[in-house]
Amino acid sequence: MTINALSVATPRYLLLGSDGPVGPDVIQLKPDTDSFAVFGFSSKERYDRFCAATELALRPYPLMRGHLRKPPEFTGKRITLICVDSSGPVEAEFQATTADSLVLAMETGSDQVPINFHLIARQQDGAYTLQPVEL
Questions:
Q1: 103: which residues sit within 8 A by CB, 6+ positions away?
Q2: Pairing between strand 35-41 and 20-21?
Q3: Of the N and C termini of the chain, which has fewer Cβ atoms inside 10 Å?
Q4: What is the pLDDT of residues 81-103, one digit of tens each?
Q5: What is the pLDDT, as a whole number, of residue 76?
Q6: Domain boundaries of the chain, sorted by first residue
Q7: CA dihedral 104, 110, 117, 72 (to 10 degrees)
Q8: What Cα–Cα distance (Å) separates residue 112 from each residue in 2, 12, 120?
Q9: How much is the pTM?
Q10: Cβ distance 82 to 115 under 8 Å?
Q11: pLDDT score of 44 more than 70
């Protein structure tokens, strides 16, 4: 796996709320897709820091390759982006890796994943736009 200049620890858990995985609202590259972003964490410390910044009832859930290859049964949608080790649910910018990059890291045993996108907050509605990371 080639790691770009911007890489982070491989996430091992995604964040679940009462209605399933939790992630930011993202303006999709393809608006008709059934895909979404989730918050993922590489350690309990990172997860705890995120939870301290919100009043939502959240719990970690193991991030498995199967969830990244096909839609998890609890969502019906495919996870395409993982916001890695975010400090809270609302930030000016999130760093995200793709599901494909994370699957490759899991299969090769890599402890790092590349940051493929920055998610930039839009002031008008709080949604996030995708900005690809240039190598």
A1: 65, 68, 69
A2: unpaired
A3: C
A4: 899 999 999 999 999 998 889 98
A5: 55
A6: 7-132
A7: 50
A8: 10, 11, 22
A9: 0.84
A10: no
A11: yes
